[in-house]
Amino acid sequence: MSKLKITRTRSSISRIDAQNETLKHLGLRKISQSVVREDTPVVRGMIKRVEHMVKVEPVQD
Hints:
Layout: E1 3-8, H1 17-26, E2 34-38, H2 41-49, E3 54-59
Antiparallel strand pairs: 1-2, 1-3
């Protein structure tokens, strides 16, 4: 299965709790922090919720 590199680009100050929790569950705590996750429908849904705060790139295996 393919993977995605997710990088946090913006602060979560003044954001709704659901967006803050989504960032936490993705494993993104600090700005410019990156994580690699499997490309699943669940992860895609989480990215969709916070797409204005993250940058997503495909990872070559």
